[in-house]
Amino acid sequence: MTMSAKHLLVALTILAATPAVPQAAQTEKKPAAVTLAPQQRAEEDKQLLGLIALTAAPLLPPVMAQDYPPATPASKKPTVAQASPQHEDDGQRLFEQNCSRCHNAPEGFSPRITGTIVRHMRVRASLSKHDEEELLHFFNP
Amino acid sequence: MARSARPIAFALALLCSALSGAAQNTPLLSGGVGFLTNTNTGNTTYMPIIEPLLAAPIGQHILVESRAALLETWAPSGNSAQPGYDHTHFIGLTYLQGDYIASPHLTVVGGSFLLPFGTYNERLSPIWIGNFQDGPISSNIGLMSSGLGVGGQVRGSAISRRKYSLAYAAYFSALSTNSQFTSERSAGGRASLYLPDQRLEVGFSYNRLLQGTHENFFGTHLWWEPKNTGFRLRSEFNRGQHAQGYWIEFDYRTQAFGGPNSLIGRFEPLFRMQQTFRLDNSTINDGVPLVNTQRADFGLDYNLPHNTRILTSYARQFSSTGNHNVWETGIVYRFLFPAWKGK
């Protein structure tokens, strides 16, 4: 079984458990506001762990044995050459500030379309010419 | 050739015209393909959907871009004598525009474009971006029914500094009754200020309907994404002649347990609260309920590897016409590749 198929199974297990609450059992209460103070994050993470353990326990051991790539958007760059530190920093910053504001970073793409992506983002995200150039260096050092 | 196929053929012709792209400027095909289900007051509809996006640069200053939607909907027939499902399909262009980058601070847009009002229509409506399947109710305010303009637009970055940046968009749209590109005669725009250190964006939108009874629409938005956290807040308030409303949405991806790409970090809990208010007794069809409505959405998305996302949510909607539940599930794959093979 591939790694992505295992992820799908875990998510589908949780998915199946979520709407199982009978409609009649739902309360009429309006929801309380969500607060995400730092000290509550640990609590939330514990609850998430509990959810996983309850709903997907049979699947967890083989899935957790897999290795995962690092989380930074820079790791998703499709090119292999290294950018200069200055371009890397500016490009990374601009990527996080402009692109990630709306959408998740795509997991890799062909270097042949980096110019098109950046020009598209320039129009969509109203980037300046300087930002466009920095992002282009970031993607294609 | 059927009328609906003409714009698609036109888009393909534009794609072919961009064949001479440079090494990094190959036209791209992006978009999302998904399967969505929605259970509203006990009735479940199923919707496979493809939303392809084409972006083709021409020369150093021009970009032609278009997005389309191809979908099929299966919904309960509602006929007790013959229970079953009816299905309908839809194929159409969402927008088709040409962009001319005239200067470092000015881009001129012509064609059929998404109205630059608020944030949802332009930035969050693609299925591979939105956290929830359906948009906020109040985001319909100011979108002139179709959310589209046919005409011209100027936009760009007015000022961009390390500490702040100011972006703008201004448009004029003519009345269009074309079946593919329906629009009202209107004009307006949006300005937004972004503070990178605070990761805070605030903006203001205004537009005016210039046909029939002229009406003004106002909107304001605030987005906040604290640095080095997986927390994100988006909110918007819109007001028109007949209705007003707001939505506020939170999402979170934990940085613990190996970061956002770990097994647990890929979970994305969501919450959205929204309210709409009728300002008069008109029965205008503006996409906003005719009575005051409150709705709370709770979601849990899972970001699978390979640009695939599972969306789940439960919402409870409250109004004087009745309260009801909305369950939504879906899986969306985002694709992004060159329009043709090359070296």
Overview of the molecule:
The complex is a heterodimer of chains A (141) and B (343). By secondary structure, chain A is mainly alpha-helical. Chain A folds into 2 domains: 1-14 and 37-68, no CATH class; 73-139, no CATH class. In chain A, 54% of the residues lie in helices and 0% in strands. In chain A, α5 (114-124) runs antiparallel to α6. The longest helix of chain A has 19 residues, at 38-56. Chain A is globular and about 25 Å long. Mean pLDDT of chain A is 58; it is low at 1-5, 8-42 and 48-83. By secondary structure, chain B is mainly beta. Chain B has a single domain, classed as Porin (Beta Barrel). Chain B has 2 helices and 18 strands. Chain B has a 16-stranded antiparallel barrel. In chain B, β10 (186-195) and β11 (200-209) form a beta hairpin. Chain B is globular. The mean pLDDT of chain B is 91. At the A-B interface, α1, α2, α5 and α6 of A face β2, α2, β6, β7 and β15 of B.
Beta-strand proportion of chain A? under 5%
pLDDT < 50 stretches of chain B: none
**Can you give the helix content of chain A as a percent range?**
40-55%
| Largest interface (CB < 8 Å) | A-B, 64 and 85 residues
CATH superfamily of chain B: Porin
Tally of structural domains of chain B: 1
Oligomer type: heterodimer
Overall morphology of chain B = globular
Number of helices of chain B: 2
User: Which series of helices and strands of chain B comes N to C?
Assistant: HEEEEEHEEEEEEEEEEEEE
Strands of chain B, total number:
18
- Mean pLDDT over the full residue set of chain A: 58
Please write the string of helix (H) and strand (E) elements of chain A. Answer: HHHHHH
The number of helical runs of chain A is 6
Extract low-pLDDT stretches of chain A: 1-5, 8-42, 48-83
- How many angstroms separate the termini of chain B? 35 Å
Q: How many distinct beta strands of chain A?
A: 0
Structural class of chain B: mainly beta
